[in-house]
Amino acid sequence: MKFLVVDDSLTMRRIIKNSLQKLGFADVSEASNGLEALEEIGKGGINIVLTDWNMPEMDGMTFVTKLRQQDAQIPILMITTNAAKEDVLEAFKAGISDYIIKPFTPEVLKEKIEGVLKG
Predict the structure, then answer these.
(1) What is the pTM of this model?
(2) What is the count of structural domains for the chain?
(3) Which DSSP category does 42 fall into?
């Protein structure tokens, strides 16, 4: 199982990556924005994406929309500080699989990953 963590904050990418490793997921790639993420996905092998919303170059919503045009199946978890109900609904309409609001615990991350992998 290969994960792609997309966040403009190096610190947040490290936190998510470390949390994934503690949960037993060692194969993790990183990207600092949606453009880099699409390039990484283009290389193949990514099974699940965890993305931030607010990023330079290409934000999370644009990234999700473009990814859904290429791949309708890959699970996408949006991890963000945007907690407004309208934002959450917009993200689901764009095609995310689930939503995590920062800050989060490893337990929440595990629960959300298990949920999206079960379909």
Answers:
(1) 0.95
(2) 1
(3) H
Residue owning tokens 């963590």:
5
Distance CA 73, CA 95 (A): 10
Residue 26, CA distances (Å) to 43, 64, 66, 85, 109 in order: 18, 24, 27, 33, 15
CATH of the domain at 21: 3.40.50.2300
Structural domain range at position 10:
3-118
- 72 CB-near residues (< 8 Å, 6+ apart): 95
Beta bridge partners of 51: 6, 78
What CA dihedral angle connects 24, 29, 33 and 39, to 10 degrees? -140
- Residue where the block lists tokens 């990183």: 30
Q: Rounded to whole angstroms, how far apart are CA atoms 100 and 78?
A: 6
Reading the block at residue 57, the tokens are 């170059």
Q: For 24-68, write each residue's pLDDT tens digit.
A: 999 999 999 999 999 999 999 999 999 999 999 999 999 999 999
